[in-house]
Amino acid sequence: MLHHEIQSEDKILFFKKEYISEFVYGGIDGAITTFAVVAGAEGASLGITVVIILGLANLIADGFSMSVGNYFSTKASRDNFDRHKAREYWEVEHLGEAEKAEIREVYEAKGFRGELLNQVVEVITSDKDVWVDTMMKEELEMTKDGKTPIKTASVTFLSFLAVGSIPLLAYIFAGLDSGIANSELFLYSSILTGIALTIVGALKSIVTERNIMAGIAETLLLGGLAASLAYFVGDVLEQVFM
Amino acid sequence: MLHHEIQSEDKILFFKKEYISEFVYGGIDGAITTFAVVAGAEGASLGITVVIILGLANLIADGFSMSVGNYFSTKASRDNFDRHKAREYWEVEHLGEAEKAEIREVYEAKGFRGELLNQVVEVITSDKDVWVDTMMKEELEMTKDGKTPIKTASVTFLSFLAVGSIPLLAYIFAGLDSGIANSELFLYSSILTGIALTIVGALKSIVTERNIMAGIAETLLLGGLAASLAYFVGDVLEQVFM
């Protein structure tokens, strides 16, 4: 009954909410990173082929490193939980009295006193699983991350590639076979990236459970500022070096 | 006493362990991302100025977007906790009987029965803070993230910039005023990046509490594969487009 309630709260549109979070953050990172390459190259007037080559190289390398990094950190967080849990089992086994005293402290802090406190401590420490579970939540304040490393990494990778390729679309499809000016391609790329960030920013508000407009504004502002920085750096360095 | 124990466990070399984690992941991401630009440009034979311009533009834009994104997501996770907690306070206030029944379920699952169960439920629900705290940990399995958004973002940004600039050092200091070949600069950049990833990979094992060799191997492999992908994409696209 309790578990049912939690699960239904955490599922939205058949997706587990936690994977929407990977989709959103992977997508935002992909779009912003790739658009920064586009903006930096445009600021330095580097030409269409440089944008496409370094944009794609960056997209694939960053998407790979972000998602594999994500795999390792999700795995590390789960392993860390398991290791602490194993240590608590060991302590319960070998340092029973000290661990029992800690359960007593925990329940004393909750307002239990006298004979009732004794009885509570007895019940908790009569079942090793309950005992360790209490130590994990109350002493270490750790709860297990329910995410599967391989799933978080896959969703991040696919989202990074899909959303992150959007800033390059105009260059790939229009840039090579016609006389469209660089500045016009950059405009199209900016518009497409803006639309993508708006959609992902709106989805972000599902994850953060906040106002949808705040999610969109935050995401657009972040992308706009990162791209402006890249453009500015490209522009300044062009004058220095070229 | 309990809190003292937890804090001392989480501090290493005067740093809170959680901020070592930001340093490590910011640094790894910075070095891998920047080295991917270097490798992609080398694969496509794009020249030293392109490496420096897009490397720096990417470093600053990515460092900014990663750390600000980090700020928002740490903040969102804390806000999410606070919102759920406020909701539990509301439920305790307005749906007291249902929430009391949930506390009963939680403690029944721990092995409490009969009169003792009644008494435990009475004590827990006699203090609203204890009641809500129990709902947060036992029903929602949520514990508060102790990290401060502005600190995690700052550490991430500085680490991203500091470690992420290492792949560019050879190009910036040796590339512009001498006749060193591109391939030689790429070799120096690879060696410096390898050293940086080795150090940060070793630090990562402090965060993950795992074998130091595994931390180094994992980090070097990840950086090497990401750079190889970027090099390969650059190389293939050079043949297609140039």
Automatic annotation (TrEMBL), chains A, B:
UniProt topology in membrane: Multi-pass membrane protein
Domain of life: Bacteria
Pfam families xref list: VIT1
Transmembrane regions: 20-40, 46-68, 152-173, 185-203, 215-234
Cellular-component GO terms for this entry: endomembrane system
Single GO BP term: intracellular manganese ion homeostasis
Protein localization: Endomembrane system
Keywords assigned: Membrane, Transmembrane, Transmembrane helix
UniProt GO MF annotations: manganese ion transmembrane transporter activity
Protein's name according to its UniProt entry: VIT1/CCC1 family predicted Fe2+/Mn2+ transporter
UniProt organism field: Pontibacter ramchanderi
